[in-house]
Amino acid sequence: MNFKEQIKNDVDVFLNFNEFAEPRIIDGREINVIIDEDVLKTKSRNKSEQYDGVYLEEILIYVKAVDFDECPVYGQRMKVDRKFYYVNNCTESAGMLEITLGANES
Q1: pLDDT tens per residue, range 40-79
Q2: Which pTM was predicted?
Q3: Helix spans in 20-104 (H)
Q4: Which domains can be identified in the chain, with CATH numbers?
């Protein structure tokens, strides 16, 4: 087994709800995800954009790539638990999707 294959096997460890992940309802399906709100504080420049009491709330989620038919595209609407977001970015690496979601808040 090479290094890339080993990393793909480790995805199951990271996205195990007994380890790091937690089950969430995404578009009506229960999926184990890791939600990271802290990394966006350093990554995002949009946090400073505010217009008359409206601001952009962003979350970053990590999921198994096999849990989705394809990588969500920019602007696609996704429901996480009971809240709607729009996809700002999605990248795939080592069997995981990193999805940045945004929602306008007031």
Answers
A1: 766 555 555 556 667 778 899 999 999 999 999 999 999 9
A2: 0.79
A3: 39-43
A4: 3-105 (2.40.10)
